[in-house]
Design brief:
Helix content is 14%, strand content 34%. The chain has 189 residues and is α+β, with helices and mostly antiparallel strands. It has one domain (3-188). The strands form three sheets. A five-stranded mixed β-sheet has the order 4-5-6-7-8, with helices on one face. The chain contains three helices and nine strands.
Length: 189
Amino acid sequence: MTTNPDRGAVAPFSYPVKVGHVSANAVSVHVEASERERRALAEVWQVLSVESLSAEMQVGRWKKDGVRLKGRVKAHVVQACVVTLEPVDDIIDEPFEQIFIPEGSKLARLVSGDSAEMVLDPDGPDLPETFVGDTIDAGVVVAEFVALSLNPYPRKPGSQFADHIESDETTDERKPNPFAVLKDWKNKE
């Protein structure tokens, strides 16, 4: 495990890549989380367990001094159902791509000025991430893509809230208006 310089904390899943060793021809890399790393990720993500986590990716140069990670992440995560708290399996199989550029690179400079516009496409590729030093952590990137793919409200099939009623159209009881007491306020002065 390595230290994440941005947060000063130890990353639960780490695969450091030395930027100086990345060639123009992309190299295939397979990473897989160990049992200890999966337990640490389950704790960070607040899920019941991480049964598996792996990624196949291509690591190569991007432009002159950047690095591109592109591949597919696969994970099997067990979460608690939001209704019954029973285990719910979440299978993740997602493509990912992340570009890193050095902090001092001219590609990292943001457009500034009164007349300059920056157009961002929400469906387009993400903006490049900057890095400091000579190492990027591909394991952290893989873990982030899995975390973003987790179901925020896992629900076991067929489970429903038993005591929750959204609306009851059979009654015509109107709630009192909280501002009704103020209608005569102006007249009292």
